[in-house]
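Let us begin with a simple case.
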Amino acid sequence: MGSKAKKKGSAAEDILETLGDFTSKENWDKFFTLRADSFEWYAEWPHLRDPLLSLLRTLAHPLPLPLLVPACGNSRLSEHLYDAGHTAITNVDFSKVVISDMLRRNVRDRPLMRWRVMDITAMQFEDESFIAVIDKGGLDALMEPELGSKLGNQYLSEVKRVLKPGGKFVCLTLAESHVLNLLFSKFRLGWKMSVDAIPLKSSGKPSLETFMVVVEKELSTVVHQITSLLHNSSLNCNSKQVSGFTEALQNENLIREKYSSDSGLLHSVEDLQEDLLKLSQGRRLQITLGGPGCSTFSYRAVILDAEELADPFTYHCGIFIVPKIRAREWLFYSEEGQWMVVRSSKAARLIMVFLDASHSDTSMEEIQKDLSLLVTPLAPAENETGAQIPSVSCTIALFVFMMASEGLKERNIIHKVTSSLTGSIIVEDVIYENVDSEVNCLFPSRELVFRRLVFERAANLVQSEALLKDEPEALLKDEPRPTKLVSETGRKKNNASSKSRKSGSQRHNAGASNQLTVYHGYVASSYHTGIISGFMLISSYMETVASSGKMAISCSKTFSCSLLLIYSSGISQVKAVIIGLGAGLLPMFLHGCVPFLEIETVELDPVIVDIAKDYFSFMEDERLKVHIADGIQFVQEIDNSGVAQIHGKSNDRSYTESPLNESSTVSHAGVELTKVDIIIVDVDSSDPSSGLTCPAPDFLDEFFLETVKDKLSENGLFVVNLVSRSQAIKDMALSKMKKVKNK
């Protein structure tokens, strides 16, 4: 599409008059209502067939190839690709009108083709979902000159995100200068690019050439020259358009030559100094800093200019140092996460520097000193934003996530083990600098000690956290004592979380933590507090169960802590499945305060079970069992009577081999129970770069969600511990759950 498409002929020009703004959803809905039959803006299938099919044959991926056609409109491009054997095609467009029309047109003849109403600047697909993205005019439509490059930049960021390594982005474009400027710069580092012209049948009339730009995704920072496949014989069109394209191609290859010159990438940055003197809204550039002869170390870095330069900025330019242990976290690894850091930093330009193994034995002071001379030339020369420009000595800004402080007064590693499934696992006892006074009131005679479970693959994340108590204190307490539920630091190991324990009186140290034991009457994790609060959704059902077992439930508020009191002389009647044991704190808390609850906990890693028992006082009984099994499989194998046959052994310890319930049915106030009442998913993701901290992506798959729905009783409760910094991922998860719930 694009403004120059208006020159193609009177028929197209008449249709285009109905659009006006190419980025308006309402305009496109109106257009597709008027023009329901297919319409090709440029480059029809007879011209595209050979180059496209030849390109798809080069992709190293099992068939069928997962293909994405963004801004599909009512073009027949994807239909032709489907008929040529490529059946795994997903088409997206933000016009509901055209998606509905295309679905009706293809549902019978092309049943495997998918159609989605979606904004291509914020696509709801997982990272690395497609091996090829085929754009026919989508980028051109977003790049209306008067609207700038913001939408085009967002769209290309999404393309880069959803492409698999080795995948290709095929952009069919009229190659206007502002489109090429964005396209070339966006895919400069770590991408191979080639350009070609689509041959057209000679009509004797001037026409616009369609160019095919192909970029291949590499996991590197290498800068490649753009390969030109242009032949004069195929360029039978507008000479001004061709000369402009050729000039832009030559200029871009000169820039890329500088990046790959013998003097190294740092010297290339110096050559591009004029480009970096001014802020460029939404620019993101990956570079390498330093090296032999100019610095002690070399560094991988990303330059990010704020997306909205009109915002009030605290700093004109800042440096954000990411330690090696956090480099693969989604917040720093992904483009979306990096832009979140830029916004929170209040810097007009942020230079994100990634440390690696070569910096391990170097102090942060030495790192800062080494970086100072390297980053100084990268600061914008003009203070257009009115923000403070720090001196060189103040430019390096270490943020609170750094290892300088975690808000801890003491930290003692009491156990470390490596699991083949989880990797390195740490159990540590800590004393926080500040603790809420309402928590101090639990054990006022001493300084409070917390025991934490940490996985080294996500060292900044506390998997489980328990308050420790003195053994004698436990014996002096009257039973049953109220169970206290308090939202605390949760799992994040940073200053913000530790400071959430407001300043309170500090006690004398009660001695080494090996004289203490875990107190299961207190929930230290805000994540667990959130999970337990979900029980209020089925409170009426639980009251009914409690009444049938001669139980009483009461709630009150004391010291701003929620108190849950349950007294019972009845039998266990509510079935719960908890996927993910961790330290066993959540099931132990529920076991202690809800005596009519039968809990089946599922844990994949037997090493975790050993740790829960040895270091967090986890114990099984007739109402609390643990199974060594895959959580998804466990839920699938629950039959209609609530029975799942799962068993396993580890380290010569025998774990539960009994079914989910010894009896096939249990009566709840005259109602026969044939399914599970509560399913809780509380597991972390093994890939911190995926954008999901919790749970693993498979637990949000529609198939699993449908299985959960099938296994839950009529009054059942499903709780997922969902942790992500990405709003798009959270929205996608919620959308899936709503979709399955409403089926």
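The second case is a distinct protein. As before, the sequence precedes its structure tokens.
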Amino acid sequence: MADLYVGYSPIYRHPKYKSGTHNSEFSNITTLYELFDHVIKTYPKKEFIGVRDYYPETESFGQYAWITTTGAAETINSLGSGLDMVYTKYAPEINLTTGQQPIGILAINRPEWLLTELAAFRSRRYTVGVSDIAGVDSAEYVINSTEIHVVVCSMDKIPRMLDRANKTPGLKVIVSMDKLDCSKPSIATQAFSKDTVDILKTKAESLNIALLDMDAVIEMGRLNPTAPSLLKPSDLCTICFTSGTSGTQKGAIHTHETFIHATRGAHLSLELYNTTYFSFMSLMHIFDRYAIYTFMFGMVRVGFFSGSTAKILEDMQVLRPTVFLISPIILNRMYDRIAGATVGATGISGVLSRFGLKSKTKRISTGRGFRHALWDRLVFDKVASKFGGNIKLMVTGAMSLNPEMQDFFRAALSCNVIQGYGQTETVGGGLIQTTDDRTNSNVGVPNPGVDIRLRSIPDMGYNVTDKPSPRGELMIRGKNVFSGYNREPERTQEIMDGEWMATGDIAKINSDGSISLVDRIGNMIKSASFLWIEPAQLEMIYSGHHLIKSVFVYGCVRAYELVAIVVPEQLTFVPWARSIAGKADADLIELCKDEGVAKKITQELRMLASKHHIPPPEMIGAVHMEPVPLEQINREFYTSSLKIRRHIVNQHYKARFEELYSTLDCIIDPKVLIERNN
């Protein structure tokens, strides 16, 4: 048995599904189109897809307008039939590798994204999310490597699609989600008029690219209906591109079987019904689609955001969602503002908020419920109302969530906040906390139907024999694991160990059976004391300081201490730093340049380290203050799923790190280092 091999831990499974399978009343659903068919038959004429009405005169948004399950089915049938005609006329070629036809989708989250994907499934096509955020080359690579001939996109994406046409020679058709006569304004049509669209039409014609709009394709299908194609579980569902922390793009191939296995398992774990879900995390990536299809098992109303991240909270107040999925890095930004106005406030309001948080956190952790008659009325109902006041569950993923933040939002929203773990290669699913779990600092247990185990990484000091908690690289096995990377068999082999997928993440098994993330292979820092240092864990602790928004630590084998980039929390930092610098009118930028302030922040971090019993090699000796978050300095610092690319940040700040170390007396003599290595 593989789990008995030396260097591997035993296999761990969901405590309720120890057989490794998850047979249920949904076992007859084998494709995502069958899942949609289940929805329209079980919940006919129910509100399904919603988006806020847009008023161009005032550039404002109204209430949510809804498409019912029955209405969506009619649209999908007509759109699928229309796309059949488009492919027959302009792009009849079948991909020789897949035996199917791909369709590219390029837009922010909106109803047409989901409708296009379901229409593609109806006709046995598979989707490829395309992005132009990371630059033209990203879209070019995706379109060319997957041999996309038809792209459905919002109007604002058409100009760049045409500009890159000479570099994407296989592209034959662009279908605009927005009407080409501009008769139905949306946030994507603001910069366009009938005249500018005429220019686009002329350019498309000159490039021999058919330019249509979705309404016209739907009408074609309505007048010339075609029969749905037979879809098999083994058929391709989607190719989802992920940049990864290495920075190079990889197209993860998923079949309907992998997607159904992952989402059905997640549904069995969460057991949510009649959900209202707020969709704003990019549908191009796996996480948001994973959520939508999971909630479809128990019926879901999907309300899409209005297109502006500045209006997310406004959208939520109008929609009043019951479930909210969010990345910790985005949640951290919200936390900074909300905590600053409550538990971080001065005066009586701050005192009451802090006392209320302590009281509610204790109440929640002991299983006495999420509501508190006094503290909710005085403090937390105001916070919950900013998120719509109706959230029953918040789920985070992509990276570990600060325990203090998890406790704060449990108290502030009067609901459970749980963590999950997955990767693009596992359809976003792998592990998740159960809905009755009140603990933190872990990502839960394996989803039903998912096996996990650890693999020792002795070079980094992680072994499955470690006491009291086995530690090692997290490995995942199950039908939710991808089929491989598009056209990259070598990279597929690199990530697979037999039928097990190596995640690259270091984890440990806790005494209660839950799994915690420790760090990522390649991110570990080796200090002059020859200890391996886990930066992610340290950054979580240091970022918990009330003056700080985020911390990035750096170390090297020549140094006994770390240095760090510190992004301050403006609301609390500025008044504090002004008093330290003696500059009553100094702004954030000026204060970040003040050497006295930087030294004082370093002292604050060292005191925090002592409080958490952090050993000297993991303490910070000097800091560089950045007035803006790292993601605003260079978007290449993060992957598309908001995971830090440490090697890129290290390279960017290399000279500054050397300057910081030059001010410290913690650098080991190179001769001594050579002697130690010998």
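DSSP finds 23 helices and 27 strands in the chain. The CA atoms of residues 637 and 648 lie 6 Å apart.
Keep these points in mind for the review questions at the end of the chapter.
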